[in-house]
Write a structure and sequence with these properties.
Layout (H helix, E strand, L loop, with lengths): L7 H20 L5 H35 L5
Length: 72
């Protein structure tokens, strides 16, 4: 069985970057280049966070499954 590496540290960094982009988006002037750029980063960050959390769920499932396998 292939063990998946943990993405906890990248998730923490990605969450912080996405929150900073969201804050920059909120304080940027309406219809500015900064607001458009931050909207793109927020969408990308949200997508990567969703994929990372799904990855961690699969990893958690693998650990639980391995824990209950019969020992040979």
């Amino acid at each position: 069985m292939i063990l998946l590496p943990s993405l906890r540290l990248p998730i923490a960094a990605l969450l912080a970057a996405t929150l900073m982009a969201w804050r920059a988006y909120e304080i940027a002037p309406i219809y500015s280049v900064v607001q458009a750029e931050m909207a793109g980063w927020i969408m990308l960050g949200s997508l990567l966070l969703a994929v990372s959390f799904f990855w961690e769920l699969i990893r958690w499932y693998q650990r639980m499954d391995r824990r209950h396998l019969p020992k040979s």
